[in-house]
Design goal:
376 residues, mainly alpha, disordered C terminus
Length: 376
């Protein structure tokens, strides 16, 4: 009897046995909580030898990324650019037609919007692989899905902008009043759908779990919208409207917003999450694109406002080319940053408020992460 009591006492004092009993007790509590409340609020228990590895910022999950990289091909960033420019041109043309201040801008904007929509559709279908896949997207209407809404907005905007351009061409040839009415109705429809089409791509990437995109979700729609406006203004200027003061003012406003967004990305947001926007290939592309679409055209447009007619037109053409190049690079930079950000296992596993080391941020920015083997 004495030996049994000693053995029982030794078992009670053994730390491993005490820990196991505590875990068993916790498991009983979890089962009771699940039965009574239908859910478990507190943390669970990982038993020794369990086949489930513990994912952590230090080891990741078997040393591999937790997120999939975007599967988009090179056509998608270009689709973002062309769609934004086409939608912005449609808005500018509708406003010009409504005010009656510049009929030539209104005319050219209709053709730019229609051509841009056709090219956007082609780029999207090229990425999808075949036209039937785009038609399949239209079988579903999900207001909570940016992809679903984007497909429907593209289809509607393409229909109305194409109708407006066809009506414009027929009106110029036959000069029939009913055709002008149809063209104006189609233009009004394109205006309605151009507004969401110009910036829905910012919502599309911001609504994902990729850290660098999701971290900037509040301003990405505005950022992409202003970039599209910058491009739309620039395309119209390069078509011969570089004397329009209204276009120059719109260009200055868009470039100023792009400059402001670049300042916030560089200095006001989490530098570790935004590391792919500042370092490595993706950082170079994004930064160069930001400079070409923000400070450079802004300075050129302001200077053009104080120059003579000839010099002003030259400066605005340079600003237009700079804005277009910057807008294209911006789209490719953000998509490339998403690829880099998705490779990093650390950020999705980090607790809020815990920052990466400087070395980790630098490795993350160029997509180099040590592949660590899972323990056990």
């Amino acid at each position: 009897m004495s030996g049994a009591r000693d053995l029982h006492s030794m078992q009670q004092d053994d730390p491993l046995i005490v820990a196991e009993r505590a875990k068993e007790s916790r498991l009983v509590e979890i089962r009771r909580e699940a039965e009574s409340k239908g859910r478990v609020i507190g943390p669970g228990v990982r038993l020794p030898g369990a086949p489930f590895p513990v994912a952590s910022p230090e080891t990741g999950y078997y040393g591999i990324p937790l997120l999939k990289q975007p599967q988009w091909t090179w056509e998608i960033p270009l689709y973002f650019f062309v769609g934004g420019a086409a939608a912005s041109a449609a808005v500018i043309g509708a406003m010009a037609n409504l005010t009656g201040r510049d009929e030539k801008i209104a005319r050219d904007a209709r053709f730019v919007a229609a051509a841009g929509t056709a090219l956007s559709s082609g780029l999207l279908i090229a990425d999808l692989g075949r036209p039937s896949r785009f038609l399949a997207m239209l079988r579903v209407f999900k207001p909570q899905s940016p992809i679903s809404m984007g497909a429907w907005v593209l289809a509607a905007f393409g229909t109305f902008s194409g109708g407006a351009a066809i009506a414009q061409a027929l009106d110029e040839k036959y000069d029939i009043g009913i055709i002008r009415v149809i063209g104006n109705v189609a233009e009004a429809g394109s205006l309605v759908f151009a507004l969401p089409f110009s910036n829905y791509t910012g919502v599309l990437i911001g609504a994902t779990v990729i850290p660098v995109w999701n971290h900037n979700i509040k301003t990405l729609p505005v950022h992409f919208g202003m970039s599209g406006l910058n491009s739309g203004v620039s395309v119209l200027e390069l078509l011969g409207h570089e004397r329009s003061r209204a276009l120059n003012v719109l260009g200055m406003g868009a470039a100023a917003m792009e400059t402001y967004e670049g300042y916030h990305v560089e200095l006001k947001r989490d530098p570790h999450v935004n590391a792919p926007l500042k370092h490595g290939v993706s950082g170079w592309i994004t930064r160069v694109g930001g400079v070409l679409s923000g400070p450079v055209p802004l300075a050129l447009r302001v200077a053009a406002s104080f120059m003579g007619s000839g010099k002003s037109r030259q400066l605005r053409k340079v600003a237009a080319w700079s804005s277009i190049a910057g807008s294209i690079l911006t789209r490719y930079g953000w998509v490339q940053a998403g690829h880099v950000s998705a490779k990093d296992w650390k950020i999705p596993l980090q607790k809020k408020g815990v920052k990466l080391t400087k070395q980790d941020a630098q490795l993350q920015s160029i997509g180099e992460f040590p592949r660590m083997k899972a323990s056990g």
